[in-house]
Amino acid sequence: MRAVRLYALTNGDYDPKKVALIQFQTGGGCRASNYIWLLRKALCNMGMEYVPVISLSFSNVEQMSGFKLYKMLLVKGIVSLIYGDLFMLLRNQVKPYEKNKGDTQRVIDKWVAELSAQFRKNKGLLGRALKKNLRAIAKDFSKIERLDVKKTKVGIVGEIYVKYSQFGNNGLEAFLESQDCEFMVPGVIGFFQYMFDNRQVDYKLYGGNFSEKIIAKFGSKLADMMEKVLLNTVKEFPEFTCPSSFDKIRALGEKVIDRGVKMGEGWLLPAEICELIESGYSNVVCAQPFGCLPNHIVGKGVIRTIREIYPDANICPIDYDAGASKVNQENRIKLMLAVAKEKADEEQKVKEAASK
Amino acid sequence: MKRIGLDLGSTTIKCVVLDEEGKILFHKYERHMSLISGMTARLLREVSRVFGNEEMLVALSGSAGMGMANDLGLPFVQEVYATRTAVKRFNPETDTVIELGGEDAKILFLTNGLEVRMNGTCAGGTGAFIDQMISLMDVDQSQMNELAAKHEKIYTIASRCGVFAKSDIQPLINQGARREDVAASIFYAVVNQTVGGLAQGREIKGKVLYLGGPLTFYSELRNAFDDVLKINGQSPENSLYYVAIGAAVSSAGEAVDLIKLAEKTENYSSSNGYVGCKPLFKSHKEYEEFTDRHRKNSDGIRISNVPNGEMFLGIDAGSTTVKAVLCDREGNIFRPSYLSNSGNPVPLIRKYLEELYREFPEIKIAGAAVTGYGEDIIRNAFHIDYGVVETVAHYTAAKRFCPDVDFIIDIGGQDIKCFRIRNDAIDSIFLNEACSSGCGSFLQTFAGVLGYSMDEFSELALYADSPVDLGSRCTVFMNSSVKQAQKDGATIDNISAGLSISVVKNALYKVIRCSDPSQLGENVVVQGGTFLNNAVLRAFEQEIGREVIRPSVAGLMGAYGAAVYAMDKSSFGAKSSVIGARELSDFTHTVKAITCKGCNNHCRLTVNTFFGGNKYIAGNRCEKPVKTEFDTVHYDLFDYKNQLLENYRKNVREAGKPTVGIPMGLNLYELLPFWYTVFKELGFNIVVSPVSTHEIYSKGQHTIPSDTVCYPAKLLHGHIEALLEEGVDAVFYPSMSYNFNEGKGQNHYNCPVVAYYPVVLDANVKSLKNVKYIKDFIGVHDRGEFVPHFKAVMKRHGYSFSTAEIKRAAKSAYNEYDIHMESLRAKAVEFMAVARKENKPVIVLAGRPYHIDPEVNHGINRLICDLGAVVLTEDSVSHYVPKFSTAVLNQWTYHARLYAAAKYVAEQKDLNINLVQLVSFGCGVDAVTSDETRAILESRGKLYTQIKIDEITNLGAVKIRLRSLFAVMNGENVEKQNKKESVKL
């Protein structure tokens, strides 16, 4: 991740003297909270210590910041999470089936342009305008012509960076597409809900600052509202699989792991695995960076428990690292897919036998 | 219609042809030397010839088959899946399959819920690993098996990663362990690696099938599996071909004309392409200029054919080679010798001396010194005058070629040693951790696997037009990367050049961790056998953008340095004690293995006895079995801490009281006094799990879900088992996101593993379901909040106490904890006073509280004491340092102590004090802390020394680090010595 960003500073596209970097910080107990410090160190080593690095966080780990977020920018940032999650959700469900290659991307491009234009005029951000946009986007996706073919359904969970970044996961999504899969990746809003939830659990477990708890509660409310807007839109289109609400995910997770586990992706990761399995994505890739400590606990650590609850779970933990080879990773995923395919074939046979 | 299945593995190709009924009509097994497409085409033609140009269904499998199947439009069958298909057909009653391949290990659980396991990216190859070991021991496959069959004992060899195992085996070989025992131990290491890494909590039982090359070829490996798993596994007929058979069975689509397919395969070049780097040499002229320049660098030192007056002998008993050399007073070289170490350096040196005495009976040896892993054994065997730390030997030698050298980098067969020189003293030392030792022997093994001699292989690299960019990564990853490059169509010469470049990058970016190669300094001397390879040398100069000096005797620098060292130490007319021609003719050497009964460690010792009764003992963790006189007093805070904790194990169980068990691991090493007191006050019997041993680890090994988590965490699985054996009512191991807040950082977290390991145990140790397992989330950082929360936790588990009772217990517990920390700190003050009075060096052996576990630290504390220093801990000095700002986020309590201790050490002026950081392998947090600790120490001109520890630790390498550190601490730098000597003269 850092490599990419620093590349952007040196490849000549930007004037480094006029650039500031923003790093989102969760402030949790895992080493990820140190990325910002490592980033500064790297800048120092490159002789670019003048490039400011701004910490964007809810935990105020980093107090210093020469940069005030304009309120409007903040609103736009938050709202774009809803749009982003919707795009990702629908794209993943439509693209593998599209009849005319490129249709899905065209819808996305169209809407990104449209939304950018609206945002510039401070429009499309709240209330009815937001809902209208979301519905129109979903409508456009639903109009894309799709083939009625069977694909292997794969869920992707993992450490938040490797999960989403194709640079971090060696083009996992492209590979799955090439293997005739449809994949589901849980959205970002859930991660925010999880973080606010953690604050409240912390208060319950250890006591502490009451006002922080109130703030967290407020944050939870806001994130829940965002989720509701998103899910309500998707529910209007029964052809799409609608993800479960955060409350449901949390309840599923509690069967597997205590909610006190809050570093990194914490309890959310196994909870998402359960949710994916329940939504029909019983083949799950769990992507984690090599040496990622929380994932010893919430990834590999609890797979056994998940299998006890869902014997059909076909979970494949993969370590991603700058040094890990793609062949190895893809080979493992192929194994998962072979098992998935066999299961599907068996189910098909059972179905055929039953219909006879 | 006939079906053909091709299994293109990492090192071999397997091919089968089946008829309609699935009967095997044809099979073939060959090493492909990476010429995968050519070899495949040849096999196809052969099949076509045998079956008269019949069209067949074709399917590919295996790690090298994926890309080819894609590009040739053939069906691909994932290999584990293929295995399973074949097993279903031939051995349907099988419960478990264990399959070892060239680089993969797989376990398939077929009954009671299908589960398939493949080795992690880190666990390394198994067949390739055995191949490496075979070349290390200089035997062939059948000899290896025969050796193992005759073993008497098994040494513990790291079972986690191949590279680790290798660095365990090397010292064993060097210390003279029996080759039979080493061979068998290698097989047992493979077994442990497979079981530990892949079983992950599932028991391997019932009908077990052994498949794949290694398990077919080595009956002793099968026996080792049988022995460890207490099973009687079978190696079926055609055990090499299961993947190919499975592929053939699953082949689908249309029949193919094999000749046409062979043509297509031959012309197949990958569609992907790869990332290339700059070629090493553009022209022959460039190459010649380069070699000329390097030849001139060594003009000052002659290599002579006859001895010249007083001669000095230097020996470097290294890991893969033994080097010996003599020099005269001018430093000119005589009889350089570079011998491959096939497991035992003693006969090599004996032969060297015999020939020397025979050819030059009149030779006068005035001094002799030895360095390297085999230092002790050689010194004892041949009565060598001096032993010298490798780093000092290398520096001594480098100075002869470049008096103002700033940086020395030595890449040998197995080690990378780099050190910076500041003020004529060795300043920073960088050694390769066992995890990234891709160096000389790696290149050599690779050349061998690809079917070339080392010289041919490096020759190929010189004019490669577009070397593969393989990055800088550890050996195991490199194997897969090369596979990938081959798949992408890289030619052998470009792979060879790419490997040379990667060796350099590995040293620069992984070992030295430099972000800018210019940091190395002006005058860089490169040495070690690997740099005799011009491709590596060129790649190094290109990477750092500067010309460097490679001495003509680059491969002999350790030995040469030792010889010069002996010369510096010996006055004129001295006579070396090295054994002479007559004694040499009577020389004998016998080796015996025994178990030391000196303490609970029960080290397995090898006793070497030489002519004249001289003994050398190896394998010991402490000096006890070696020293005859009574041990000198140790000032060891690790020991003291363990003694303090011992007080909490003395609790006698009383009838009628509930019994709670506390597993002794991770943060409980610090919190034991606290929790013990809480439960004591509340009227519990308390059982603390015993002191860790490898046996305890083995007890829990099968339930470890993640093979890359740190060893201290893995140990807990065994401790839980030990507690359950004691028959406790409850196991208490609370989850703790937060630690005590000592006000040193922005937060007071535990690391994720310490915080949540109780959760992992709950999910993976089935037997915990039989007792109350109290793993609830508890915080001790807020003394007020603790009471109601702890009360609720206890109530949840059926133990009701009043608030007053809990309050009282908590008060005593906090008090006990405070006293514990106080006594620790008081002891440190006492030790420091001793150090001042007796002028002893002080080492703050810094890590985490659980590093005092002897099974975790492998006795490194004692090793330091044996070297004459006082050992303190990070938590015994950190409280002196007020909160200060660090360059990284300071949010973990234990790590905040580490930074504070580093600052404390850095600021001491009147004390000879240094810090050594213990880092557990796999610790993601220490990736952050070690750089910061180094920065804090170096900002005040202190040395930073890091020791990586794991299940097994190469104490040889640790010793080098420590001795080098002590050489600097004691001001024993080369310059000063030389000056002293010259005054005397």
Question: Would you kindly provide a written description of the structure presented here, covering whatever features stand out?
Answer:
The complex is a heterodimer of chains A (356) and B (985). Chain A has 356 residues and is an alpha/beta fold. Among the domains of chain A are: 2-57, no CATH class; 150-187 and 243-352, Rossmann fold (3-Layer(aba) Sandwich), CATH 3.40.50. Chain A has 14 helices and six strands. Chain A has helices at residues 2-10, 35-45, 71-94, 103-120, 127-143, 160-164, 172-178, 189-206, 210-235, 246-254, 268-278, 293-298, 303-309, 326-355, and strands spanning 21-25, 53-57, 152-158, 181-184, 283-289, 314-320. In chain A, the strands form two sheets. A four-stranded parallel β-sheet of chain A has the order 4-3-5-6, sandwiched between helices. In chain A, strands 1-2 form a two-stranded parallel sheet. In chain A, helix 3 (71-94) packs antiparallel against helix 4 (103-120) and helix 3 runs parallel beside helix 5 (127-143). Chain A starts with a helix and ends with a helix. Chain B is α/β, with parallel strands linked by helices and 985 residues long. Among the domains of chain B are: 1-91 and 239-268, Nucleotidyltransferase, domain 5 (2-Layer Sandwich); 93-235, ATPase, nucleotide binding domain (Nucleotidyltransferase, domain 5); 591-618, no CATH class; 640-820, no CATH class; 822-978, Rossmann fold (3-Layer(aba) Sandwich), CATH 3.40.50. In chain B, a hairpin with a 4-residue loop joins strand 16 (407-411) and strand 17 (416-422). In chain B, helix 1 (36-50) runs antiparallel to helix 11. The longest helix of chain B is centred in the last third of the chain and has 36 residues, at 803-838. Mean pLDDT of chain B is 85; it is low at 972-985. The interface between A and B is large, with 63 and 74 residues.
Sheet with most strands: strand arrangement of chain A: 4-3-5-6
Oligomer: heterodimer
The largest sheet of chain A is:
4 strands, parallel
Which geometry of chain B do the CA atoms define?
Answer: globular
User: Helical region count of chain A?
Assistant: 14
Total beta strands of chain B: 30
Q: Please report the number of helical segments of chain B.
A: 35
Given as residue ranges, the uncertain stretches of chain A (5+ residues, pLDDT < 50) are none
What's the order of the H and E elements of chain A?
Answer: HEHEHHHEHHEHHHHEHHEH
Instruction: Calculate the terminal CA-CA distance of chain A, rounded to whole Å.
Output: 54 Å
The gyration radius over C-alpha positions of chain A equals 21 Å
Q: Sheet with the most strands of chain B?
A: 6 strands, mixed
**Residues in helices of chain B, as a percent range:** 40-55%
**What class would the helix/strand composition of chain B place it in?**
alpha/beta
CATH architecture of one domain in chain A: 3-Layer(aba) Sandwich
Instruction: Kindly name the structural category of chain A.
Output: alpha/beta
For this structure, the CATH topology of one domain in chain A is Rossmann fold
The number of distinct β-strands of chain A equals 6
**Residue-averaged pLDDT of chain B, rounded?**
85
Silhouette of chain A: globular
Distance between the termini of chain B: 91 Å
